[in-house]
Structures are given as structure tokens and as C-alpha cells.
Amino acid sequence: MQIEHIDSKKIQPLEFFLASCGSALETFRYFEKRPLSVIQNHLATLLGSDENGTPVVYGHLDKEDGTVWLGICVSKGSQGRGFGNAMMQVLLDVARGQGIESISLTVDATNSNAARLYEKFGFKQTRVSEMTLWYIWSSD
Fold it and tell me: For the chain, where are the alpha helices, taking DSSP H only?
């Protein structure tokens, strides 16, 4: 898999990815109320492609009000093939390289596959509601 940084000048692969995600967007709603241009404010925006060059996984680190948030989405047809693992590893490597000490994320309470992925990479659950799980990762 090839993972590359993208920016607001190179938005077409991201548009293609989002258009081809299928039902994965039911649990990844980051762009529902944000324009794609929001990526210009990200600390990192990454897009991973499969062996055919098709974008299959997206990830970002976004700093908002002093908190760094991680977002990740694997297209529906590509889930379970290790793309999420690869993206998580690269995102955490980028975070360490930028000196980021803490990362937060939320996930739908029903998305147990994503929750297991986050926990595998050291994210600790900090809060639970009926609909949402909150996680935090620390570099120490």
C-alpha cells in the first residue's frame, strides 16, 4: 500500500475516495458538515491506495481548540485487509515526529471493529455514552 500526504491543491483523490467509500461514511461523518478545504488546517492529511492505485483509506490529525483529533476511514470494500492498521501506524508516527503528546478520537459505540483497532494502538477509552465512545492516546 502507498500512503501519501495530500493537501488542498491535490483534492481530487480525496473526492474520489469519499465518493467510493460506500456505507463506511455512515460512521465517518467528518466531512458531512465541513468543506474539503478544511484539510488545509490539518496537521496531517493522508490517503492510502491499494496495489491498483485506488484510494482505500483516509486519515488525518486535526488540531481544534488545543486538542489533536484523529480521524480515519477505510472504504467499505477494503475493510479487513490491513489498511486501517497501516494508516494508524503512519498517523502515530507522524504525531510522534511532530512532538504530539496526546490524540483524541470518538467512534460510534456500535463500531466495534474500529474500537478494537484504536485499542490495539494504545488508545484508552475515557468516556462512554449510548451512541459514542471517547478515546485518548498518549505518547508516554
Answer: 12-19, 83-97, 112-120
